[in-house]
Amino acid sequence: MPHRSSHLVVPETHQEALRRFKAGVFQVLGHPTRIHIVECLRDGELTVGAILGRVGVEPANLSQHLAVLRGKGLVDTRKDGNLVYYSLRDPLLKEVLDIMRRYFLSHLEESLGMLREMESEP
Questions:
Q1: Which residues are CB-contacts of 110 (< 8 A; sequence separation ≥ 6)?
Q2: Helix and strand counts by DSSP (H, E) for the chain
Q3: Is pLDDT above 80 for 22?
Q4: What is residue 5's predicted lDDT score, i.e. its pLDDT?
Q5: Is 28 in contact with 74 (CB distance < 8 Å)?
Q6: Range of the domain at 42
Q7: Is position 97 within any domain?
Q8: Which of 13, 26, 57, 70 holds its CA 20 to 30 A away from the CA of 48?
Q9: CATH code assigned at 54
């Protein structure tokens, strides 16, 4: 009998579901304001007013972005009297953004290196 890999074989139907899940999360994170909101929530929950002060958009616009994040399950809410607090549902989202930052920086350095080479050519 041939040796089988210890890697889990995932059926293609499950792979497709996973791809759709990833695409949905990236679609929600595909707007700079929503990324800014998530970045604001990195260190813990904030009230809507605090998020508004940091993100600097119109209240109606913030409300729409928060609804999208809430609808996709990326943020949780909690009410305390008249205040609504938002927090990240899963801290792994911070890691996703950290990885994207590192990805950006690695390609930025690569681009800067090419520019330096072009400038040094006669």
A1: none
A2: 5, 3
A3: yes
A4: 47
A5: yes
A6: 12-90
A7: no
A8: 26
A9: 1.10.10.10
